[in-house]
Specification:
mainly alpha; 237 residues; 8% strand; 10 helices
Length: 237
């Protein structure tokens, strides 16, 4: 029996690794970072939950005292984030068709290829530009909050766009323990201007990674968490 198991194990080792499920279909999406939505670049994996991200994309999450996984929101130890060597190996092994010219390219080289692919550039140039659905000459009420720029809730610095607010708070208020109202959330139609975040910097990095002007969809779990936080805030008041 031991000899039989040894022969089976030896045969399995000689077999080439199985390709991803679904073949080439959706291969690029399967190996894309859930933060930047591009093919992984220098991927790293969180030890506790196993989720993988580009190393650079995960960096902002490592700059807060109690980081949460951007995908599942579970806390993790930043010391247990390791290079995803198995993913890098797969990126070099698998090829997928370019979404522009349809040429098969190794996933590890997909970013470079897409940035220089003429077909992809043509597709981007032909994307429809945003225009208002119906032109209007009506004046804009002055009591509508400005969602383009925000004021720092810690020091009152004004005219910061979303990315500038994140950068400003990380650099100037990383150790500030005060509970503050998120100026981005409070400017939203569903926002509660009285709700103070217990960890504003953590909230800012995870909830507002993307601009609400271009990325307004969020998961059911996030909606449930927000509603629970809102209910808790109302009950405390």
């Amino acid at each position: 029996m031991a000899m039989f198991r040894s022969l089976v194990a030896s045969a399995q080792q000689r077999q080439p690794p199985a390709g991803p499920a679904g073949g080439d279909s959706g291969l690029e999406a399967q190996y894309s970072c859930p933060i930047c939505l591009e093919v992984y670049y220098r991927p790293v994996a969180i030890g506790s939950c196993g989720h993988t991200f580009c190393g650079e994309c995960l960096q902002p999450c490592l700059q807060v005292p109690s980081p949460l996984c951007p995908l599942c929101r579970l806390p993790f130890d930043p010391k247990k984030v390791d290079k995803a060597a198995h993913v890098e190996k797969q990126l070099s092994s698998y090829k997928a068709p370019c979404r522009g010219c349809n040429k098969k390219v190794a996933l590890a080289k997909m970013r470079v290829h897409v940035s220089s692919c003429v077909k992809v550039q043509e597709q981007m140039a032909n994307c429809p530009k945003f225009v208002p659905v119906v032109p209007t000459s009506q004046p804009i009420p002055s009591n509508i909050p400005n969602r383009s720029t925000f004021t720092c809730p810690y020091c009152g610095a004004r005219n910061l766009d979303q990315q500038e607010l994140v950068k400003h708070c990380v650099e100037s208020h990383r150790s500030d323990p005060n509970r503050v109202v998120c100026p981005i959330c409070s400017a939203m139609p569903w926002g509660d201007p009285s709700y103070k975040s217990a960890n504003f910097l953590q909230h800012l990095l995870h909830r507002h990674k993307f601009s609400y002007d271009t990325f307004v969809d969020y998961s059911i779990d996030e909606e449930a968490a927000f509603q629970a936080a809102l209910a808790l805030s109302l009950s405390e008041n």
